[in-house]
Amino acid sequence: TSTLMFGLVTEEGDFSLIAVGDMTRPTRLLFGTGSTSGNSFSANALSYLGPNKQPVSLSGTIVDQVSITGSYSLTGESATFTLDYANLYERAASFGTLAGVYTLTVPANGTNPGTVLTVDVGATGAFTYTNSASGCTITGSFTVPHSNRNYYRFTGTPAGCTAAGTSVSGMAYLGDNSAGQNRVLTMLGQDQTQTAPIFFVLPK
Q1: pLDDT at position 95, please?
Q2: Which terminus, N or C, of the chain has the lesser number of Cβ atoms within 10 Å?
């Protein structure tokens, strides 16, 4: 079976991916580092399903700046996928571009009183994440690996977060919404002890 997948594969070869689930397969977050030989790639990674994780293997074929086609497998599950190259990867990156307040409001539903998720990024790359419902916060900073590639790395220290260790790290990139370019922040990462994933998609 085939799965919808999106995420980030960096210049350094590490990746953060979301494999979107369906009626037969749950949504998974995949984190790992791959290697290439010619146009072929292979990788070992961790697959998160909520707080649970399993080892997963990936392999496939790369067409440079066009696509990555392959498959992943773990115990009791496998799927094929195609990642199409996105030109937004080639946009310039800087703290000035990244700076701003990104907010997502989750409406009240049943016993959930509603939640406001916020990532506030300053002019030097420092950021604060807050979850109004749980009280979880993360304070940290971004770096710019390549000024001509639209991705960032982050590290942070969580507080009041039940499913996180003493530090978190990961990658981020900026997408678009109807208000214009570079206005949607996607953050993908995990805690230091690899017990909890991070996945935020927040508009500015």
Answers
A1: 98
A2: N
On whether the CB atoms of residues 127 and 121 are closer than 8 A, the answer is: yes
Structure tokens at 113: 């009183």
- Provide the pLDDT for residue 114: 79
**DSSP letter for each residue of 50-90:** TTEEEEEEEEEEEETTTEEEEEEEETTEEEEEEEE--GGGG
Residue 191 makes CB contacts below 8 A (sequence gap 6+) with 158, 163, 164, 165, 166, 167, 168, 198
Low-confidence ranges of the chain (pLDDT < 50): none
Written as six digits, the tokens of 148 are 């001509």
pLDDT tens-place string over residues 59-70: 999 999 999 999
Cross-strand partners of 170: 154, 189
Encode burial over 141-178: b for 16+ CB neighbours within 10 A, e otherwise.
bbebeeeebbbbbbebebeebeebeeebebbbbbbeee
pLDDT at res. 15? 94
Return all residues near 156 (Cβ < 8 A) that are at least 6 apart: 127, 129, 138, 139, 140, 141, 167, 168, 169
Are 48 and 29 within 8 A, CB to CB?
Answer: yes
